[in-house]
Amino acid sequence: MSGAPGENQTPATKAPGWALWLPLLLFAGFVGLVMVGLYRPASREVKSAMVGKPLPEFTLKQAVPDRPALSHTDMIGGKPRLLNIFASWCVPCAAEAPQLEALRRQGVEIDGVAIRDKTDDLKGFLARNGNPYARIGSDEVSAIQFAVGSSGVPESFVIDARGIIRYQHIGDITAEQVPMILARLKEAEQ
Question: What angle do CA 91, 121, 112 make, to 5 degrees?
Answer without folding.
Answer: 70
